[in-house]
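Field notebook, page 417. I keep forgetting to write these up properly, so this time I am using the form the group agreed on. The chain and the ligand, iron/sulfur cluster, are recorded exactly as supplied. Prediction of the bound pose follows.
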Amino acid sequence: MSTRLPQISGFSTAKIVQSLASNPGSFPVQSLYIHIPFCFHKCHYCDFYSLVDTRDRQVPFVARLLSELAALAPLSRGAPLRTIFIGGGTPTLLAPPLWAELLDGLSQHFDLSHIKAGRGEFTVECNPETASPELFALLQQGGVDRLSMGAQSFNPKHLKTLERWHDPASVPRAVGLARDAGFTRLSLDLIFAIPGQTLTDWEQDLTTTLDLGITHISCYALTYEPNTAMTARLKRGQFQACDEDLEVEMYELMVDRCTDAGLTRYEVSNFAVPGQECAHNLAYWQQEPWLAAGPSASAHLLDPAGGSWRWKNLPRLDDYLKKSDAGHPPARDLEAPDPRRLLAEQIMTGLRLREGLDLPALCAGVIDTTLKEQLAAVAHTQIARHHLAEREGHLQLTESGFLFADGLAGEFLALLS
Ligand code: SF4
């Protein structure tokens, strides 16, 4: 389905960056993701690339990261960045002097004028235990205007099940410090369907979160990713996964409580005060191009000839540090996805959005008439089942469709595999 590096030998991230940067028809890339891999400890459900911070590799990491940012900068073609998202890992574990270096480097290599004028978005993921007035002041000065905090739960028993190490009281404290520092755009991450969690427990987490008066919430059901400690414990029978009916009740409760509090669902798992949606994540979900730096970070670039490029950086910090290549991204997978693969991704992410999909427009580039008819037939079946509705030319999830969004997308994707 996609062309991998061995079949397109001679290509490298360095060559692609140079070729796109020197092509006058290239689109300026205006979104940037940076991955900071350090954490206090490994939470049992987590499959993001992260490692326990021993403080001895932060300095070489930031030096390597800055060289990668310098190598990527020509792809913005001098246009102001619209969104930056620094995630991880636990970015706020980075020592403040290194944060100062990173923010300074970003300003040197990229145009942050939109972001600093309040017309863009610059998010940093924050562990509430790491919140301090000094760090938040530094982030503010560097143009950061949005903090995304990992709360996951306010119940110590459920945090323990997740092996998530923070004191629930640190969350309201961090929110207060963020407000004192001038942040108005605050998001909290929550997890539901934790083994042993009741509907009442979940309602208490929602109440505590909404009482904080924040502008954005991301709530995901616990998933058992391969190779995580949580999945190994499940397989050993140490606990039972949450019952599916209870998970549905939790989802419905979350929708009701968030809606009552004035936060609108704009994606299956994301709620925001209108106007406070995460512009960076919307760029991903709407398949816009983005740059990516740091170990395991994935980039998506558009080619003016109509194709696109994807790559994922080497995930291990040691490998990332070793491979320099004049700062260019050390890619593990380099792909040029074909139109069917791109369409599959657009359907997978677009269907989860409140706006839904303009299927005929998306299919315009698909020349296979039979395939177009098959996709339209799946849409009609789902409309007949009341999982999708056609509104203003878009296919949108209905209330019951929101409960089966991934399975529903799977029916379209089966035709594209
Ligand atoms: S803090 Fe976040 S990135 Fe780090 S191990 Fe826990 S879930 Fe994973």
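OBSERVATIONS:
- The chain has two domains: 2-285, 338-417.
- The two ends are 8 Å apart (CA to CA).
FOLLOW-UP: compare against the apo run.
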